[in-house]
Structure formats: structure tokens, C-alpha cells
UniProtKB/TrEMBL annotation, chains A, B:
Species name: Herpetosiphon geysericola
Entry protein name: homoserine dehydrogenase
Family: Belongs to the homoserine dehydrogenase family.
Positions contributing to NADP(+) binding: G8, F9, G10, G11, V12, G13
PANTHER family, per the entry: HOMOSERINE DEHYDROGENASE, PTHR43070
């Protein structure tokens, strides 16, 4: 069995561990504090995961070591990065050493274009989990690209949180209550503007665009946040307190869309000419318009899928399905 | 570059050739008459394809040879089977010799269970194109299986022809005119009962079920044909002449569905307990109910996708997209 290292041992990292144990020899798991190296029994690995779930750091466990886990990697290892670190340069080093990577971590793929190309150029890095979690979105984009199809447009709803928000507004709920509800459900970051700002969606769009070969950076993507510019510098508490000021504006935009037989979605749109992330009125009977709630959806319009797009849809977040995409990549890299 | 052989040189086989030329060294192409071996220039290969498209057999070309193409295969070759032959035993022999296979041909996967297992057991055979053409349906099923998810139900509309038929009935068109129109468009086999009978859909369902590990044969799948048993023994001409007798029955079933807020679809339903192919009333706002026209759709309900299914949808037929799935498999087998 191939050796596997897991860096990042939060919910996704631990789910990768549990799903991967039947398929791989676990060489090490690492978090910011340090790492635990194998061999350990499967039972013991699961106990390490249980301890971490209760708040213990890996370095403080009996088997734990502090220091740089990379030095402890066996040669020709598979590495799953489930962190949210901007560690592209370090990952490129690993690839140069002959390691193979499966990423749930979007940030290294959105760094400098040269780093992206160094990471994925040798096809030693896969990243299905970075867009739509377990939904087969990257693999579908690869299928279209590799078979010589010409992608003319990718349109996607790539944030469950923003999908929930816009479905709520569609149902007549004020923007402010929808944001508060999403925050209370734990669906937003502690600062909801981290979701409402659209940067996470833009990262996903950039990953798809780069997968198609477009040589873009994050700064090339036009982003319309779901709050006005003057709200950017407020504290979280001030932002939450002033949400009601935005209710009328979003309700009106939704009403204008409805008057046209349309509805509002937060759409990532990628064409060979550029990408745009923002609020968009879409026809009720279009794939994006028929979407309800937090599901993700991606529609590819291509030379071959021109009259009607290829569509993938479903829950695009969650620890177990994100881990399943990482495992899919790990198995493909064997 | 890896060696590639293409067996079956109809529309799909020729599209595989055109898509594969940038990626592979074409070792040979074969049809029922014989074969042409490389090396040839890309231009010459395309000329061979053009001649075949005009009705010439491969054996009768200047470069052609009659006889068994298998004897001319280089070792460690990739083989694309784009025929409709029931040639499982021969393919198993090829796999045993170390060749790797990409199939657009469903029949070998639906033969005896032992042959299926011998074909796919070593993961030297892939078959994305056999279900939904270029749509990522087999790869998604693999993703769910390999990551340890538990598939509870797969529901699919897997025939563009029958999707067109039922959409037409939904729009108030009589069954007879819809069948005649599909036949006139070339969307049915010369005998439309080959489509209406549901066996082709059942083959796709069996392939998905076997992919999940269910040890079933085609005879284990309950099939409801879209015509009554007493129409089975008519000649094609008699069948076409008597279609009007069926109009009232199907119109009534559709009306009954509408009265319940439902509509009729021709559904393949696969659960761990068995598979069933037939007419089914589905809710208008369900994924299957929202489908219109000839698109294919598959919805996976699993332990992890339980509340809302994972859905793939789009055109599920066509020479170019079928070939693109074969190419996807060939690249994955490299």
C-alpha cells in the first residue's frame, strides 16, 4: 500500500484519515503544532483523531513531535493538504522531491501563476475537493479539456452559504435575517463578510479557469461583494448591527428580477474573455434558476454541449464529501 | 506516446481517432472486414476515416488487411472498443494478455458476471462512455464507491430517445406521433421497439449496479417496455401501423400523473435490493421531473448525499461526446 501523509487535521483531515485507512499506509499526520508518525495501528490512528477532535494538538500527544513534518516524509509519498494555508511554495518543493499531492486547500492553487503551473504541470497534484467538495467538477472540466472540447462558458453557483441567502431572499426573507440565520447555523465564517465578499467563490472560479489553461490571477477576476463598499471597514459587531440598511436594496433587486421572469443568484461566470463573480438575474427555468437552497451547481457550455449544457449539481460542502474527493484524488494518483 | 488500437470504426470510432491523434500513436484501426496497421501519418489516418465514412471497408483499402486484428496488436496496447458486439470473452483474453481497454460498447459488460469481473477486476478496463456518453456518470459512481459512501438509490433517465418521447407526451402529443417523429429524426433504431423495449436502458443500469459491486445479471432487472407484450411479435411495418392503438393508454397515464402534481418519466431505479426499468410518475419539482426533452440525468442518493442527491445532467448521446469519454478513459489508463 502507498504511503500517505495528511497535513491539516481538522474535520476534513480527520475524515480523510478515516476514509483512507483501508487503502493506504498512513505515514504521518500533521497540524500546525507538529506531527505524529506511523506505524500505528488503525485503532491508534483513530484515537489520535479523536484526541485532536477534542482540542489536543498533535505535538502534545504521547506519539507527537514538534517541528517540521516535511522532514519526516518518506520518499514517494502521497500528501493530502486539508489546511487553509497559503503554502504554494512549500508544496511546489514537495512536488519537486517526487511527492504527489491531493489538495482540499484552495489557496496554493490561487497563488502566483508560475507556482500553479509548477504544482499541476507534472500531473502530480490533484484538487477535486477544492471546487464543490465531493461533486465531480474538476474531473469534468479535465474531461472536457483533455478531449479537445472547447469550453465557451462555465457558470456556477459555488457557495452553499450564498445559495441559501439568495433562496431566502427569493422567498421574501429580508437580507438581514438571512445573513443572521446563516451565521447562527455556523454556515458563515465568524465574519460573514468573508463569505459575502465573494473571494472564496472567485478562488474556485480561478481554479477552474486555470484548469482550462487560462493564465489568470485572482486580481483578474471581477468580484461584486454581497455588501456595499462602505460596509467593508466596520467591525463585525457594527456590520451585523447595520444589516437592515441593506434589506430594501436586495429586496428591490429581487423584485426587478421577478418582474422579468427571473430570479437572483450569486454566479461565477467564466468565459475565455474573463471571469466575473456577482449577483445575476437568471431565468427561472434555467439550470441556475431552478437551483434552490444551498446546493452547488456548475453548467458547462462547450462546442459539444452547446444547445444544452452539461450540469453537475448537489451539496457542495461538508466534511465527509470533501474528504471523499480527496480520497478520489489519492486513489487516482496511485 | 502509448499505442492505441480502435476496434469499431463507425461514427464513434472515427471520432475517437480524431480526438486521440494528438495523444497517442495509432497502432491500428479495425472493423468487421479487417484492419489497417500503422505507422501512418495523421493525414493518412484521417483519410482512412474519410474513406470508411463513405462506406469503404478497411480490408478493401490499399493499406488494409483482412483477418483477425488481434494478432496484429502490439503488446501493452490501449484498445478502444466502439462496436456493439457481444465480445466479452475476447476482451477478457486481451486483458489477460496485458492490454488495457476503454469501452463504448455496453454488451461485454452485461454478459456473464464472471466475465465482467475478469474484465474490470484489474482496473485495466474503463467504460465511461457506456452510460450517458460524455456525462461523468461512471466516474461519479466510482468516486462514491471508492470513498466508502453507501449508495442507497440511483435514479436515472438514461435514454434521450425515451426522454424525448415522454416530454412529447407531457406536451400533449400522442404516443404514435412522438414515436414516428423520433424514428424520422433517426433517434431510434430501425425497429423502434429496440429503444422502446428498455433493454438498452437496463444494460446501463446493470453496468452501474455492477460498478457498485452488485452481483446481478441482466435477467435480474425488471423491465417494463414502452409497448404492450402483444406488440412484440409484429413486423416493424405492422407495429408502426398500429401505434395509434396505444395513444389513449399513455395519454391517460400522463393525465393521472398530472392530477397528482407529477409527470411521467422512463426511469432506471437501482437500489441494493434490485433494479427496475419502466414508466414512473415523478414529482414535477424533483430532479427527474424537472428534466425536459432528450437530456439524460442521474441522481445518486447516498449516505452522504441523503437529504439532497448528487445530480449529473446533460445530453447523453452523440458521437463527439461519446468519443470524449473514451478518450478520458484512455488517458486515465496511461
Amino acid at each position: 500500500m502507498h504511503n500517505l501523509a495528511i497535513y491539516g487535521f481538522g474535520g476534513v483531515g480527520r475524515a480523510v484519515l478515516a476514509q483512507a485507512l483501508p487503502h493506504f499506509t498512513l505515514a504521518l499526520v500533521a497540524d500546525r503544532s507538529g506531527y505524529v508518525v506511523g506505524p500505528l495501528s488503525n485503532e491508534r490512528w483513530l484515537a489520535v483523531a479523536a484526541a485532536k477532535a477534542q482540542g489536543t494538538t498533535l505535538a502534545s500527544l504521547p506519539e507527537g513531535t514538534s517541528g517540521d513534518w516535511r522532514a519526516a516524509l518518506p520518499a514517494g509519498c502521497l500528501v493530502a493538504d486539508t489546511t487553509a494555508e497559503a503554502n504554494a511554495a512549500q508544496l511546489v518543493e514537495l512536488v519537486a522531491q517526487g511527492q504527489r499531492l491531493a489538495l482540499a486547500n484552495k489557496k496554493p492553487l490561487c497563488d502566483d501563476l508560475n507556482l500553479f503551473q509548477a504544482l499541476v504541470g507534472e500531473r502530480r497534484t490533484r484538487y477535486e475537493a477544492t471546487v464543490g467538495a465531493g461533486l465531480p467538477i474538476v474531473v469534468t472540466t479535465n474531461l472536457l479539456r483533455d478531449s479537445g472540447d472547447q469550453v465557451q462558458r462555465i457558470e456556477g453557483c459555488l457557495s452553499g452559504t450564498l445559495g441559501f441567502l439568495l433562496s431566502s431572499i427569493e422567498q421574501g426573507k429580508p437580507y438581514s435575517s438571512a445573513v443572521r440565520e446563516a451565521k447562527a447555523l455556523g454556515w458563515t465564517e465568524p465574519d460573514p463578510r468573508d463569505d459575502l465578499g465573494g473571494v472564496d467563490v472567485a478562488r474556485k472560479a480561478l481554479i477552474l479557469a486555470r484548469t482550462l489553461g487560462y493564465q489568470w490571477n485572482l486580481s483578474d477576476i471581477a468580484i461584486e461583494p454581497l455588501y456595499p463598499a462602505e460596509f467593508a471597514d466596520l467591525s463585525i459587531a457594527e456590520f451585523m448591527a447595520q444589516l437592515e440598511q441593506l434589506d430594501a436594496g436586495y429586496a428591490q433587486r429581487q423584485a426587478e428580477a421577478v418582474a422579468q421572469g427571473q430570479t437572483l443568484r450569486y454566479v461565477a461566470s467564466i468565459t475565455p474573455d474573463g471571469a466575473r463573480i456577482g449577483l445575476q438575474a437568471v431565468a427561472n427555468d434555467s439550470p441556475l434558476g431552478s437551483l434552490k437552497g444551498p446546493d452547488n451547481l456548475v453548467a458547462w457550455t462547450t462546442k459539444r454541449y452547446q444547445e444544452r449544457p452539461l450540469v453537475v449539481r448537489g451539496p457542495g460542502a461538508g466534511v465527509e464529501v470533501t474528504a471523499s474527493a480527496v480520497l478520489f484524488d489519492l486513489l487516482a494518483l496511485c
